[in-house]
Amino acid sequence: MALLSKLGADQEVQVLALFGPTSVGKSEVAVVLSERLAANGRRSVIIGADSMQLYDGLPLVSGAASAAQRARAAHRLIGSVPIDSEFSAGQYAALAHAEIDRAIEDDEVPIVVGGTGLYLQAALTEMPMRPPISPATEETLQQQLEDDGADALHERLAAQVPAAAARIHVSDHRRLLRALALLAEGQSLDDQDGGIWTSQTRHATRLIGLTCDRADLYSRIDRRVEEIAAAGGADEVRAALDAGASRTAKMALGFRELQDGDLEAMKQATRRYAKRQLTWLAKLDHAELIDVAGRSAEQVAEQILSGDSGSAA
């Protein structure tokens, strides 16, 4: 199959990775790819690369693969972290490396799928990790956010590093707190989101970027938000809070908006997040871009497996 020879006869592909903005359809494409590989005698396993899909208790909010999709293909690192646990990219990297290495040893194709650029990079490369932020600093900033509000914290960041404040929206609490925490502990904000992408992956990797027209993407996002709400997203958030959702779990996109019952704010926040994902996609070295507009997951998977991908990033 083209998948197994895409990088040349002297470098067989060992890992297939899918990246793209939220609502673009990554989960279903990955499942169809796994099914097509099985039909051709190749076993595979889908490995999540999403900071929120890791949590047990947030399947709707995080957009994790559904129960039906998970029944069709083996999945790892989805719903595997207790909702009350703090979790970091460094912890994820160790788990992802172990899952990918195990799959290759078992002659399975690891299909790494995610929308969190930092986690994708952590899974595929030996990315240097920053020292962890102290719990005391995180707790102090979280309390300041609750007491003073995001506007005040954003103004503080603007006063210290205007360029960082310009690229971090005031409503993006996770990145805002992260930036302030790094500054508080004397660290630089250079490449705060994980550094420049490198093609030096741990294993021979074929990287696919799924894209679509911006207007189409926003329409998909709006539909997805409505579907999450209709399926009980607010109930899921309340259950997570009752179960003691950790600080990092509560940073899930849409968590606060569902708690407040503000779907329009959730749509806007999700569109902003999708724009950041597209920025990540633009810097993925050697990614093959595939436009999914007007196409089924089966058609996209067939294009990937045929080796007839789109333009390179």
> Tell me about the biggest sheet?
6 strands, parallel
- Structurally, the number of domains stands at 2
* Second-tier CATH architecture of the largest domain: 3-Layer(aba) Sandwich
| CATH level-3 fold name of the largest domain | Rossmann fold
Order of helices and strands: EHEHHEHEHHHHHEHHHHEH
Task: Give the beta-strand count.
Answer: 6
Number of helices: 14
Quaternary status of these chains? single chain
Work out the strand percent: 5-15%
Task: Give the arrangement of secondary structure elements.
Layout: E1 15-19, H1 26-39, E2 43-48, H2 59-62, H3 67-72, E3 75-76, H4 89-105, E4 108-114, H5 117-124, H6 135-148, H7 150-160, H8 162-167, H9 173-184, E5 205-211, H10 214-230, H11 233-242, H12 255-260, H13 263-282, E6 288-291, H14 297-306
Parallel strand pairs: 1-4, 1-5, 2-3, 2-4, 5-6
Helix pairs in contact: 1-14, 4-5, 6-7, 6-9, 7-9, 10-13
Structural description of this entry:
With 313 residues, the protein is α/β, with parallel strands linked by helices. It has two domains: 2-127 and 195-306, Rossmann fold (3-Layer(aba) Sandwich); 135-184, no CATH class. The protein is 50% helix and 10% strand. The chain is built from 14 helices and six strands. It has a six-stranded parallel β-sheet, sandwiched between helices. Residues 5-9 have low confidence and may be disordered.
Q: Quick recap of the structure?
A:
50% of the residues lie in helices and 10% in strands. It is α/β, with parallel strands linked by helices.
